[in-house]
């Protein structure tokens, strides 16, 4: 093969690679997406307030303040730096038990819906960082039992804020993996306000990400 033929072949190969990478990279900059995250949730239980309310009938309290939480989400990536995202979250179940045993046991379950604005910072073609802030509407379901209170239950639904940060790595123009931390502000049914943190990982799929961008 002479030098001219080699040059033409090399230019052709470069052109094919550019044609493949260019449209794919551009297509991942916008579109509808969906995904699922799961991980550990951790609640802040107001031990001091609980013991104060019980007076001398309880001397100490132990918390089960960690559980498995998850969320299902979908969103619209408007461009490479901004997206809107909505979803359902379930932060799990948390409980406390006072001493002496049986004085008061409490449990709470939290789930709800959210709507977030997301700012995206591309670091490499496949790796990016992001931050989010949004509104969430959560339902907390509380139940109590023990010698200091008759068996009872209550629920409350309230709107509040949430925020978080994370990173994403894209395996392909359509499929990526996220790792993130989020904080949910929750109002429960007995007048307590506190934060529940969710540290999670998951997958996100950009619909149409593998389709070449339209010619300009």
- Range of helix content: 10-25%
Number of helices: 2
Question: How many β-strands, per DSSP?
Answer: 9
Listing every helix as H and every strand as E from the N terminus to the C terminus, the arrangement reads HEHEEEEEEEE
Q: Which stretches are poorly predicted, pLDDT < 50 over at least 5 residues?
A: 1-27
- Give the rounded overall mean pLDDT: 81
Task: Kindly give the count of domains.
Answer: 1
Shape: elongated
Proportion in β-strands: over 45%
In terms of structural class, how would the helical and strand content be classed? alpha+beta
* Largest beta-sheet characterization: 8 strands, antiparallel, barrel
Major β-sheet strand ordering = 1-3-4-5-6-7-8-9
The end-to-end distance, rounded to whole angstroms, is 36 Å
Overall CATH class: Mainly Beta
Rg of Cα set:
25 Å
User: What CATH architecture do you see?
Assistant: Beta Barrel
CATH topology tier name: Porin
Describe the structure.
The protein has helices at residues 3-27, 47-54, and strands at residues 31-43, 60-64, 66-79, 82-99, 105-122, 127-145, 152-170, 175-187, 193-206. By secondary structure, it is α+β, with helices and mostly antiparallel strands. It has one domain (3-206): Porin (Beta Barrel), CATH 2.40.160.20. Strands 1-3-4-5-6-7-8-9 form an 8-stranded antiparallel barrel. Residues 1-27 have low confidence and may be disordered.
């Amino acid at each position: 093969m002479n030098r001219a033929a080699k040059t033409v072949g090399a230019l052709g190969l470069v052109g094919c690679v550019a044609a493949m990478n260019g449209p794919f990279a551009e297509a991942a900059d916008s579109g509808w997406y969906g995904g699922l995250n799961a991980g550990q949730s951790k609640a802040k239980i107001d031990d001091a307030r609980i013991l104060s309310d019980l007076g001398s009938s309880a001397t100490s309290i132990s918390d089960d303040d960690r559980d498995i939480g998850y969320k299902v989400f979908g969103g619209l990536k408007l461009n490479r730096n901004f997206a809107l995202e909505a979803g359902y979250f379930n932060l799990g179940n948390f409980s406390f038990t006072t001493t002496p045993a049986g004085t008061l046991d409490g449990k709470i379950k939290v789930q709800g819906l959210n709507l977030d604005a997301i700012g995206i910072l591309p670091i490499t073609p496949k790796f990016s960082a992001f931050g989010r802030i949004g509104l969430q509407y959560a339902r907390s379901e509380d139940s109590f039992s023990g010698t200091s209170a008759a068996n009872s239950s209550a629920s409350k639904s309230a709107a509040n804020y949430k925020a978080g940060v994370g990173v994403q790595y894209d395996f392909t123009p359509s499929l990526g993996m996220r790792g993130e931390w989020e904080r949910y502000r929750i109002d429960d049914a007995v007048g307590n306000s506190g934060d529940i943190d969710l540290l999670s990982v998951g997958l996100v799929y950009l619909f149409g990400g593998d389709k070449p961008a339209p010619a300009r």
